[in-house]
Each structure stands twice: as structure tokens, then as C-alpha cells.
């Protein structure tokens, strides 16, 4: 369904398609400490959380990490991966996914997915800088009705990549996304100080979803 080219070669990616928003099968299989993170949430939230964590554990297993270690939450809800690994999780209606990689190859990474649909009215004005708005207008004129979702996903993936490296908030206005038609993008970081001036990014629109990844390789 999704190209593994979205990620560096060292990464492992696992996704789950589901129409059962409140299926708690994977939630009940989590480590008790993981279950406790959302124990007071509604079933839909528990289901999303359990499915995404299940994907994360599967990705780590593919990297040779022994099962059993809980992925807890850090600052601002950031997933706490095993010491020598980095990764990211995402979930939206119908799709849950996670990607993980060894820190010897990837410093940080982020992933985000959204339905391949137009953004709600007015949202693009809240998230887009002027150059981004010009590219959005061109893409929309070409018939890419999901162009706003792509920009949103790219910014969310950029934030998920940024935060583990800095423990600082990054607003929509603090990164400028140069989306390219070949399925790549560059996220230029405008906030200062910054550990790196830009993140590499990749994107795909497939099977009704927009998926974007951002990463910093070692």
C-alpha cells in the first residue's frame, strides 16, 4: 500500500488498516504501563493508541529489539523509544502506522497520515506561509484537492522529527515546506537555535491517504 521509499533504508515501517474504530484487541495486548497511559480515555482513543503501539512494537521487533519493553510517553506526549532507537507513530480514521530506526543511522524521524481530502475551510490560511500558499494554489489548480492535507502532514511530520531533538515547540510558521512533485520535500527550519537547518522529507498519496515523513540521517 505504501512505499518503503518514504523512509531511510535502515528504518522499519509497519501499518494497519482498520474500519473498527473501537476495536481494543491490540490495546489489551499492550504492556500494563502502556494501557495505563489512556486507561481513562474513550474506546476509540484506546483503539487508536493500541493499534499504533502494536505497529511500533512490530517495527522494533523487525529491528531485533526483544519484545516486552513499554513505549511510554515523554514531554508533550512524545513516545519514549528504547534507548538506541528512534521512531514515530500516527493514526487517522482507517489507518494506524509506526516507523522505527536505530539511532546509529537516523537521529530523529516523524510520520503523519491524513485522509486524501481537502482541508476544512480556512485551515490553509492558518498553517501556510506565503511561499507555501503559492505552491498550494498551483497544486490545487492542477486538480490535487488534497494539497492542503499534504502540507499539513509535512508540517506535522516535521514537528514530530523536531521535538525529540530539541524538546521545544515548533509552530506552523516556524518551518517552511518546499514540496516537490517527485514525492520529496525539504522542511526548512526557521526557529532558532536549531540543531540542523532543514529536514529531508518524502510523501505519497495512496489508497485514499496522504502520508508524509521527515527525518535526519546520521
UniProtKB/TrEMBL annotation:
<dbReference type="GO" id="GO:0000287">
    <property type="term" value="F:magnesium ion binding"/>
</dbReference>
<feature type="binding site">
    <location>
        <position position="170"/>
    </location>
    <ligand>
        <name>CoA</name>
    </ligand>
</feature>
<feature type="binding site">
    <location>
        <position position="112"/>
    </location>
    <ligand>
        <name>CoA</name>
    </ligand>
</feature>
<dbReference type="InterPro" id="IPR041354">
    <property type="entry name" value="4PPT_N"/>
</dbReference>
<dbReference type="InterPro" id="IPR003542">
    <property type="entry name" value="Enbac_synth_compD-like"/>
</dbReference>
<dbReference type="GO" id="GO:0009239">
    <property type="term" value="P:enterobactin biosynthetic process"/>
</dbReference>
<feature type="binding site">
    <location>
        <position position="45"/>
    </location>
    <ligand>
        <name>CoA</name>
    </ligand>
</feature>
<dbReference type="Pfam" id="PF01648">
    <property type="entry name" value="ACPS"/>
</dbReference>
<feature type="binding site">
    <location>
        <position position="112"/>
    </location>
    <ligand>
        <name>Mg(2+)</name>
    </ligand>
</feature>
<dbReference type="GO" id="GO:0005886">
    <property type="term" value="C:plasma membrane"/>
</dbReference>
<feature type="domain" description="4'-phosphopantetheinyl transferase N-terminal">
    <location>
        <begin position="33"/>
        <end position="101"/>
    </location>
</feature>
<feature type="binding site">
    <location>
        <position position="114"/>
    </location>
    <ligand>
        <name>Mg(2+)</name>
    </ligand>
</feature>
<keyword id="KW-0808">Transferase</keyword>
<keyword id="KW-0460">Magnesium</keyword>
<dbReference type="GO" id="GO:0008897">
    <property type="term" value="F:holo-[acyl-carrier-protein] synthase activity"/>
</dbReference>
<feature type="domain" description="4'-phosphopantetheinyl transferase">
    <location>
        <begin position="109"/>
        <end position="203"/>
    </location>
</feature>
<feature type="binding site">
    <location>
        <position position="156"/>
    </location>
    <ligand>
        <name>CoA</name>
    </ligand>
</feature>
<feature type="binding site">
    <location>
        <position position="113"/>
    </location>
    <ligand>
        <name>Mg(2+)</name>
    </ligand>
</feature>
<feature type="binding site">
    <location>
        <position position="160"/>
    </location>
    <ligand>
        <name>CoA</name>
    </ligand>
</feature>
<keyword id="KW-0479">Metal-binding</keyword>
<dbReference type="InterPro" id="IPR008278">
    <property type="entry name" value="4-PPantetheinyl_Trfase_dom"/>
</dbReference>
<feature type="binding site">
    <location>
        <begin position="90"/>
        <end position="91"/>
    </location>
    <ligand>
        <name>CoA</name>
    </ligand>
</feature>
<protein>
    <submittedName>
        <fullName>4'-phosphopantetheinyl transferase superfamily protein</fullName>
    </submittedName>
</protein>
<dbReference type="GO" id="GO:0009366">
    <property type="term" value="C:enterobactin synthetase complex"/>
</dbReference>
<dbReference type="InterPro" id="IPR037143">
    <property type="entry name" value="4-PPantetheinyl_Trfase_dom_sf"/>
</dbReference>
<feature type="binding site">
    <location>
        <position position="53"/>
    </location>
    <ligand>
        <name>CoA</name>
    </ligand>
</feature>
<dbReference type="Pfam" id="PF17837">
    <property type="entry name" value="4PPT_N"/>
</dbReference>
